[in-house]
Every structure is written in C-alpha cells, then in structure tokens.
Inverse folding.
C-alpha cells in the first residue's frame, strides 16, 4: 500500500531527523532558509497508522514567467531506500504530490553509497600511471543493494545525471566524496591514520605558534576575504558574503552546533578559515579558505586537525571532506586536494549520484538546454 505524502511542520521534520543517526545538512528545514531563490517545503511520508516514516526537504525553483517548478531534494529524501517496494510505495506518491504542486521535473540525490575505495586503494590509483579516473580503479567494496536500487530507478523512468566535466564534479551535489571513519576510533587512532606529511605539518604548525580558534558571525568578513583569494587561486566563482551570513544565521538558529567557523591565526595574522557542519553523527568540512602567505607554518593542517578533534568530541561517526575529483591525472589542479584529503586517512566514497524524473518532457528539455548554456 502506498504511503501518504503531505507537508509537515519544521518541528516534525527536525524530530524525524533527530531520530536518525545521519542525514544530509541539505535535508534539514533550515537549509531552505539558506536558499532564498527557492521556495522550501518539508514533506513527510505517513504509514497506515499515521506514523511518520520518512521526510524530505523540497526546494522549488520557478521557471521564469511560468508557475511551474523544478522540485529538488538535495542529498535526499530520508526514506527507506532499500525497501523492495521503493518505487511504488515511496517514490510514486512523491511524484504525484510534486506534480500537484506544479513541478515539471523532479531532481533528487539518494543518500545511498554505491562503492568505496580505502585510503590505500586511492593512493595506489593515484600512483598508477595507467589509471585516469577513480571510477575505473578496482573498489575495495561494493555496497549491497545499491546496484539494484539504481536498476529499479532506471526501469521506472528516472534518469541518472552523469558526473560532470573532466574533474568528476557534477552541476549539483558531488557524487564522489572523501570521508574519514570515526566510529569506534579514539583520537589517537585517528591521528595514527594521518600520513607522515600530515603529522609532520601539524607538529610544525604547533611549533610555529599557529593558534586555531572558533569564530562567530562577526568573523565571517575575515573568512570571506580569504575565501575570495582562494577562489582566484583555484579558479572558481565565489559565493557572495551574504550567502555565508544567511547560512550561519539560519543553521545556528536551528541548532547551535549545526554550523561552526574556525580560524587559524599566526602572530596576529589570519591565515586560514573553514566552516564545519553537523547533523547527528555526520560532520562535514564545508567551505575552506586560506592565503598564500606563510604557507610554511601549515595553518590548514592545524585547522583541520582541530576540526577533526572537535568533531570526534561531538560524537561524529564520520568526518566528511565532501567532494573530490574523479580524475587522477597529474595535470589536474584538483589532484592536490584529493591527496590532501586522503592524507588525513580518508576513504573515497561513490554515491548513486543525482537522478531526474521529467514530469513534463518539453519543459525538462528546455531546462537542460538552459543549464548547458550556463
């Protein structure tokens, strides 16, 4: 029997998230407040006895001049993805509801892991001159049931978004991420998992007098100055300062530890800054920024280690470095970032990626053409 889908309150949504060990920071009610260009709605799946069995944050993006929307559930929804009746019981009621809300297309990101590569496997792939992409390297493990979920989605009309560009980053959320497992490990165990370079750099920063502190809303302009410098150096378009101010205000209002800001100081100079997000037992390194000055005192390693120890103190089961490149070629400027993250003891994780369901094929195709031109 299909579940009933209807809007839920923020409190109902938060209570459901709190009942789970992990949920994406993009599937909590406050994330809708971070995205003013989208209309946000919390929805819930109810069983025959009226119990809330699943939840999701839907972001609606209007088409110019039309009352039609792209409905997006980033890294969600929070449902039983391994249910044998996934399509009929969970997804069909969702599509029917969203169509009734004026959606012409639905995009979602199932929080389902497909494959994993251990730290050693990623290092071996990077060192192999014949390996061009991580996806071509032999994974350490395949997650049971993931392929079956993908097959069922395809058969029911969902289309998988391919990893974008030459670097493996898609236009939406990253399909490949780097995570350091914390569950059942002590801080000493986690420190032991760092490579020699990381341990040396942390010691070097300590000896040089680098101090890592937690910042507040008033420190966001300092973070932003470093972030803009990082954007110029690493060739990406920076978000505006009000985005981070809105993010900090919205997320910390929902939970004081939902978002934290860290800054690395040396002799009165701020050399690096980063944001950290927490939902349940999952902690993310979200945005990082640094200056090219005084790199020899290793502020980034010091800052990450402080964030990792704080995450462990918060009860994290995983420390998530977020997106990584799928390209293993030396010429790719993102390979250094992959080495940095794997050096912290990180494993490479491939999710099922993002999936689209065109409810109106003509409007969906028009959106595809528009996005391609952008």
């Amino acid at each position: 029997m299909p579940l009933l889908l209807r809007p839920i309150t923020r409190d109902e949504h938060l209570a459901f998230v709190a009942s789970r060990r992990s949920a994406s920071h993009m599937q909590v009610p406050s994330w809708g407040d971070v995205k003013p260009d989208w209309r946000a709605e919390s929805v819930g799946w109810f069983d025959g006895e009226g119990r809330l069995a699943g939840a999701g944050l839907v972001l609606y993006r209007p088409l110019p001049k039309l009352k039609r929307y792209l409905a997006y559930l980033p890294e969600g929804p929070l449902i039983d993805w391994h249910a044998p009746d996934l399509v009929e019981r969970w997804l069909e009621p969702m599509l029917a509801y969203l169509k009734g809300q004026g959606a012409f297309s639905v995009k979602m990101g199932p929080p389902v892991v497909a494959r994993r590569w251990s730290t050693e496997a990623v290092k071996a792939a990077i060192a192999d001159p014949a390996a061009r992409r991580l996806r071509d390297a032999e994974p350490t493990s395949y997650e049971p049931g993931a392929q079956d979920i993908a097959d069922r989605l395809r058969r029911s009309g969902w289309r998988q978004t391919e990893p974008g560009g030459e670097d493996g980053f898609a236009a939406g959320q990253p399909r490949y991420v780097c995570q350091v497992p914390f569950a059942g490990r002590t801080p000493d165990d986690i420190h032991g998992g760092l490579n020699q370079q990381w341990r040396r750099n942390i010691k070097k920063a300590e000896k040089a007098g680098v101090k890592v502190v937690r910042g507040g809303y008033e420190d966001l302009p300092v973070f932003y100055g470093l972030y803009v410098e990082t954007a110029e150096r690493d060739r990406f378009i920076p978000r505006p300062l009000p985005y981070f101010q809105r993010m900090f205000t919205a997320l910390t209002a929902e939970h004081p530890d939902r978002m934290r800001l860290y800054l690395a100081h040396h002799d009165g100079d701020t050399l690096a800054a980063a944001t950290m997000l927490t939902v349940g037992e999952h902690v993310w390194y979200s945005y990082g920024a640094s200056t090219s000055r005084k790199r020899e005192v290793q502020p980034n390693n010091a800052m990450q280690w402080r964030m990792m120890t704080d995450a462990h103190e918060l009860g994290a089961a995983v420390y998530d470095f977020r997106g990584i490149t799928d390209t293993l070629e030396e010429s790719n400027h993102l390979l250094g970032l992959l080495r940095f993250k794997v050096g912290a003891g990180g494993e490479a994780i491939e999710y099922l990626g993002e999936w689209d369901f065109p409810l109106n094929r003509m409007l969906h195709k028009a959106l595809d053409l528009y996005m391609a031109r952008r």
Summary: The chain has a mean pLDDT of 94. The radius of gyration is 21 Å. The chain has two domains: 4-109+354-373, 113-142+156-351. Residues 310 and 316 are 9 Å apart (CA to CA).
